[in-house]
Design brief:
The protein is of the alpha+beta class. The chain folds into three domains: 3-99, Beta Barrel (OB fold (Dihydrolipoamide Acetyltransferase, E2P)); 108-180, Dihydrolipoamide Transferase; 236-431, Chloramphenicol acetyltransferase-like domain (Chloramphenicol Acetyltransferase, 2-Layer Sandwich). The chain contains eight helices and 23 strands. Strands 13, 16, 19, 20, 21, 22 and 23 form a seven-stranded mixed beta sheet that branches. A four-stranded antiparallel beta sheet has the order 1-8-6-3, with no helix packed on it. It is elongated, with a radius of gyration of 27 Å. The termini are far apart.
């Protein structure tokens, strides 16, 4: 009997996933638990193992398509076995299959329609964004289904026939996502208006001009851009700047680093910033909250997101229940999350559920910054570079390791006095560390 490969629900709040890549092809033999495909959810790629041993008989969802959890992705069985219908179903936890419904663009003329079959959310989104009449697109997928590549090919043809003003070269979809994801593309340089013969302009433009380069926006960078713009449009951002003396923290780190290392843990300053943030959130719990139009939701758990820079962008793994962990426990989990984030080995659940975020922009030498709130949270802490600076202490000049800390907060939830009270609690914890 054939075995169904179902889009897994890779987290409690994960309702859909994108097939990033098939690691096996139709007709390939597979063994149970062998990696079968990669699924992307919220910037995290996860390998999905084969649920059975046999032959990959049919793939129903091509790479690049986004479908709901429970959708039939493929079938594994023995050659010659009967297959499910071509239209991909979505199965519940009980294994029963029900048809998937997807939003379709409403701008399709009522006359001379043909059955479009299953339209994935990605195809529907592309069609809506680029005003594509799907009745004009030839489907090359299973059973004539319209795929993302079909829409992209249609847009390429339409762009070649349309005036440049209607569809600029940099707006044409490529082979990856909405844009070509792998290398720099060169857009055709605009031709200057003709200048009178013999004029300085005509002499200056006689030499060939280099076409400009551009970087296509796709994948993680596209997700980051959408998230940041949505945050700025959603919440009124206010930033307050404080300065913290890290003398006590550095003394504690020097005294305990060797002991932590014996436990296989690197004690970094990040652990202290997380612990101080937890103490400040306990002192001012309103910062650990979320705006919900008619109410403010106070979060009981303190889940700290840590922004980690990757070559292709930024990801924010979440340190769950940080308030229940010791400094050693925080340092160990920070080491683990950062290592796996850079190795693209995080699970989808590990980048969700944050209630407050910390971004350490100081690793690149930045003094202070005004980071954007990680929605739907109410605030984010920015950590600048630590520098020895001249400060005045009890009317005496001293040199201390200082750091600028910024808190950007949602002014719908927090007023300046509350944000400052939170920052005073945080900086006091750092300055008086024992």
């Amino acid at each position: 009997m054939p075995t169904h490969v179902i889009m897994p629900q890779l987290g409690e709040s994960v309702v859909e996933g994108t097939v990033s890549k098939w690691l096996k092809h139709e007709g390939d033999p597979v063994n149970e638990y062998d990696p079968l495909l990669e699924v992307n959810t919220d910037k995290v790629d996860t390998e999905v193992p084969a649920p059975a041993t046999g032959t990959l008989l049919k793939v129903y969802v091509a790479a690049g398509l986004t479908v709901q959890a429970g959708t039939l992705l493929a079938v594994i069985g023995q050659p010659g076995e009967a297959l499910p219908p071509a239209e991909a179903p979505a199965g519940g936890h009980n294994g029963h299959a029900t048809p998937v419904s997807a939003a379709r663009p409403s701008a399709v003329p009522s006359a001379a329609k043909h059955d479009l079959g299953f339209i994935s959310p990605v195809v529907a989104r592309l069609a809506d964004e680029f005003k594509v009449d799907l009745q004009q697109v030839t489907g090359t997928g299973q059973g004539g289904r319209i795929t993302k590549k079909d829409v992209q090919a249609y847009l390429d043809q339409r762009g070649a026939a349309a005036p440049a003003a209607d569809l600029p070269p940099w707006e044409k979809p490529g082979d990856g996502d909405l844009f070509r994801p792998t290398e720099l593309q060169t857009a055709a340089a605009p031709q200057p208006a003709a200048a009178p013969q013999g004029s300085p302009a005509s002499q200056a433009t006689s030499a060939p001009q280099a076409a400009p380069d551009f970087i296509p926006v796709a994948g993680m960078r596209k997700l980051i851009a959408e998230h940041m713009v949505r945050s700025e449009r959603t919440a009124p951002h206010v930033t307050t700047v404080f300065e913290a003396d890290l003398s006590a923290v550095l003394a504690h780190q020097a005294a305990h680093q060797a002991a932590f290392a014996r436990d296989g843990v690197t004690l970094t300053l990040t652990a202290y910033f997380v612990a101080a943030t937890v103490a400040a959130l306990r002192a001012v719990p309103l910062v650990n909250s979320q705006w919900a139009e008619d109410k403010i939701i106070l979060k009981r758990e303190i889940n700290i997101g840590l922004a980690v820079a990757l070559d292709e962008g930024l990801i924010v793994p979440v340190l769950k229940r940080a308030d229940e962990k010791s400094l050693l426990g925080l340092a160990r989990e920070i080491n683990d999350l950062a290592r796996r984030a850079r190795a693209n080995a995080l699970r989808p659940d590990e980048v969700q559920g944050g209630t407050f975020t910390i971004t350490n922009h100081g690793i690149s030498g930045s003094l202070f910054a005004t980071p954007i709130i990680n929605q739907p949270q109410s605030a984010i802490l920015g950590v600048g570079v630590m520098q020895k600076r001249v400060v005045v202490i009890h009317d005496a000049i001293a040199i201390r390791p200082m750091v600028y800390l910024t808190c950007t907060f949602d002014h719908r939830v927090l007023d300046g006095a509350v944000g400052d009270r939170f920052m005073r609690a945080l900086t006091k914890t750092l300055a008086t560390w024992r």
